[in-house]
Amino acid sequence: MFVSEKKVEIRYAETDQMGVVYHANYLVWMEIGRTQLVADMGFNYAGLEEKGYLSPVLDLSIQYKKAMRYGQIATVRTWIESHTKLKTTYGYEILHEDGSVAATATSLHTLVRKDNFRPYPLSKVDPEWDAKYLELAVIK
């Protein structure tokens, strides 16, 4: 299984009054993880947008396991859970420096044209990218 990793230094602004990372920041880290995964595979998400496509989130599931705090370094692990003609599911683990799991998650995305927001197959936009996703998907 191909897993991308990205380290994120937790900033004070990402914490709440209790000094714990505010839950919505994990979503930002997941986006950072997806972007890193795409780059690690040799592709560029911004290039899709330049061609007139977006990849909105259709569904998101996150399980918080162990709080993270200001000053820690989070490691965001990201992989392709599944990939079909119109939908891609990404898997995530967000880890503490000692390797313990802070959160696990999945996000479901589709590809749409900017001009009409209708779903469009990645295979028609970038066949090489689509083939790589199919190759690396955990669930075939």
TrEMBL record:
CDD domains: 4HBT (cd00586)
UniProt keyword annotations, A-Z: Hydrolase
GO molecular function: fatty acyl-CoA hydrolase activity
UniProt cross-references to SUPFAM superfamilies, sorted A to Z: Thioesterase/thiol ester dehydrase-isomerase
Domain of life: Bacteria
UniProt-listed InterPro entries: 4-hydroxybenzoyl-CoA_TE (IPR050563), HotDog_dom_sf (IPR029069), YbgC/YbaW (IPR006684)
Presence of the UniProt keyword Hydrolase in the record: yes
Entry similarity comment: Belongs to the 4-hydroxybenzoyl-CoA thioesterase family.
Designated name of the protein: Uncharacterized protein
